[in-house]
C-alpha cells in the first residue's frame, strides 16, 4: 500500500525550489539525471538503462516514495521519502508504526555546488518532523560519497555508523558504508 503523505500541503516551496510528489510525467526527467555516470555511480540500483529505470520508477510503491525537486519549473533532482516502522519488540510494535523515515537524494550535477540539495533535503526533514510528526529520520550512503554525508552533517544529522566494507558496490567491490540520523527533538534544538 502506498504511503500516506496527504498531511503535507503539496507542493512545498523553499526560497528557490519547489518540492512535490513525483508523477508518471516526471519519470523521463528523473531518468535523464539518474543515468549520468556521476550520479548513477552512487545509487542503489543501476539506472543507466532507460527501460529498466522507467519500469522501476513506475512501480506504484516506488513512485509513492519519490519527490521531485524543481527549479524554475524544471526537475533538477529527486528525493526519496520512505516512512517506515521503527524496530520494536513484538508486544509493543504498534507504538513504533510509521514513526521514522529513510531519506535519499539525487541532484543534477549541472546544479551542484549551489546549495540546492541542502535546501531541498532540509525541507524534507522539516516535512518529516512538522507535517508528518515523525520522531526520527535517517540516511545511508557509501563512505566514498563524500558530498552525500557532508550534506547530512550540514543538516545536523549525527553519524551513527561507519561500517567497514559492509556495502557491495557494482564497480568498487566491498566498500565502507555510513549511516546518519536525526531525532525530532534534536532538530528542534538546532532550530532554536
From TrEMBL:
PROSITE patterns: GNAT (PS51186)
SUPFAM superfamilies according to UniProt: Acyl-CoA N-acyltransferases (Nat)
Family annotation (Pfam families): Acetyltransf_3
Molecular-function annotations in GO: acyltransferase activity, transferring groups other than amino-acyl groups
Domain N-acetyltransferase residues, every copy: 17-181
Top-rank taxon: Bacteria
Protein name (database record): N-acetyltransferase
Species of origin: Cellulomonas chitinilytica
Amino acid at each position: 500500500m502506498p504511503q500516506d503523505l496527504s498531511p503535507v500541503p503539496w507542493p512545498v516551496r523553499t526560497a528557490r525550489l519547489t518540492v512535490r510528489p513525483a508523477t508518471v510525467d516526471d519519470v523521463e526527467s528523473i531518468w535523464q539525471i539518474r543515468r549520468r555516470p556521476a550520479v548513477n555511480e552512487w545509487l542503489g540500483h543501476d539506472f543507466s538503462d532507460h527501460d529498466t529505470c522507467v519500469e522501476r520508477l513506475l512501480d506504484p510503491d516506488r513512485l509513492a516514495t519519490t519527490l521531485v525537486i524543481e527549479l524554475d519549473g524544471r526537475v533538477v533532482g529527486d528525493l526519496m521519502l520512505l516512512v517506515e516502522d521503527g524496530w520494536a519488540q513484538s508486544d509493543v510494535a504498534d507504538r513504533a508504526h510509521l514513526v521514522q523515515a529513510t531519506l535519499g537524494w539525487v541532484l543534477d550535477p549541472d546544479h551542484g555546488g549551489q546549495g540546492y540539495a541542502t535546501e531541498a533535503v532540509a525541507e524534507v526533514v522539516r516535512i518529516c518532523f512538522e507535517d508528518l510528526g515523525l520522531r526520527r529520520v535517517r540516511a545511508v550512503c557509501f563512505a566514498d560519497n563524500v558530498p552525500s554525508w557532508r550534506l547530512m552533517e550540514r543538516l545536523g544529522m549525527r553519524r551513527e555508523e561507519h561500517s567497514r566494507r559492509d556495502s557491495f558496490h557494482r564497480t568498487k567491490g566491498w566498500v565502507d558504508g555510513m549511516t546518519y540520523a536525526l531525532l525530532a527533538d534534536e532538530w528542534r534544538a538546532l532550530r532554536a
